[in-house]
């Protein structure tokens, strides 16, 4: 259901073709809910079949061909609202990084060090991505957000912007905590 | 592979029956890699078939019946070592909490507030669990850890303890970051 909700949320920014949706997805919501193009296209067709999206042909190129443009229907908006309102089921911990860390006595110190360095590199990349998104959202230069904001008045637009910022600040907070933890672990390894 | 690795790691603490393994799992490694009993028992049998565990019947009760006791084989120890040494594949972000947060304009402020409160409650529970584990590990009163430490000399035991602590400190760091983030979001909601 999350990919479906992510696509509904994306397309509420304004009607878009499947190609546009996949491209915009990768540049916005795909940063917090990753999906490949090969997951996105079939899901759009299923969402149309389920009445959450409507379609119309739009001209494409100069040879009289058309592409399918998707718009979120009233049912689609209702489904998005239901999803945003419903409580999440929190799952119990299942973190491969913590699991491996708990048993590092089964490898040598150099390998253990490398694991923590890779953890820092991964979360540094995530942190950088999130900081770039925060900058584009704050300056309102993000293309999908700009399009979305056209349909809101000033006070509403401020709320819309704030929720996007909250999401990416959460990504930053988590990745920063992971980096700090891995650096602390590297220090402990050194002392052992 | 993670459940298999978690079970191998657990049973290196010393031979145990399937029932014992499931009980000890829930009280130790299951806190960082959750699995249900109905996942654990079939996995133990598959691990035996794959040569990672050996079995022998041990007396059980007073009626001459027996239970199967599992021991990690040399192949099992090698598999555990390989898993601990191999790099992790980091997956791209897919966090339902961030995804929902990014689109909270689709619900009312009271519901948004409730979502963040539930997030705080969930992570407070995780934090408490991890702090309890840290206390038991530090005082070396944790029954599975005590059994494990019998097979190590003092210097090695210190490393074994330190890796368990690192893992749970990571759980704490993550949950504390989530709590802080959700509290900041509640403050922002208030101001909107």
UniProtKB/TrEMBL annotation, chains A, B:
Protein name according to UniProt: PadR family transcriptional regulator
Signal sequence extent: none
Pfam families referenced in this protein's UniProt entry, alphabetically: PadR, Vir_act_alpha_C
The Transcription regulator PadR C-terminal domain, residue ranges: 94-189
Entry-linked PANTHER family: TRANSCRIPTIONAL REGULATOR YQJI, TRANSCRIPTIONAL REGULATORY PROTEIN
Record InterPro entries: Tscrpt_reg_PadR_C, Tscrpt_reg_PadR_N, WH-like_DNA-bd_sf, WH_DNA-bd_sf
Domain Transcription regulator PadR N-terminal: 7-80
Source organism of the structure: Kocuria soli
């Amino acid at each position: 259901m999350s990919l479906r909700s992510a696509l509904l949320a994306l397309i509420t920014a304004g009607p878009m073709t499947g190609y546009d949706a996949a491209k915009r997805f990768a540049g916005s919501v795909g940063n917090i809910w990753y999906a490949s193009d090969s997951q996105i296209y079939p899901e759009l067709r299923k969402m149309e079949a389920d009445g959450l999206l409507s379609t119309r042909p739009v001209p494409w190129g100069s040879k009289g061909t058309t592409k399918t443009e998707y718009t979120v229907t009233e049912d689609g908006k209702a489904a998005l609202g239901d999803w945003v309102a419903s409580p999440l089921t929190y799952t119990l911990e299942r973190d491969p990084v913590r699991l491996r860390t708990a048993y590092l006595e089964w490898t040598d110190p150099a390998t253990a060090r490398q694991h923590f360095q890779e953890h820092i590199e991964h979360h540094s990349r995530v942190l950088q991505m999130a900081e770039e998104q925060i900058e584009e959202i704050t300056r309102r230069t993000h293309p999908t957000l700009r399009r979305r904001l056209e349909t809101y008045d000033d006070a509403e637009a401020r709320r819309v912007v704030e929720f996007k910022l909250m999401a990416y600040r959460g990504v930053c907070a988590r990745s920063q905590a992971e980096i700090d933890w891995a650096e602390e672990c590297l220090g402990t390894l050194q002392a052992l």
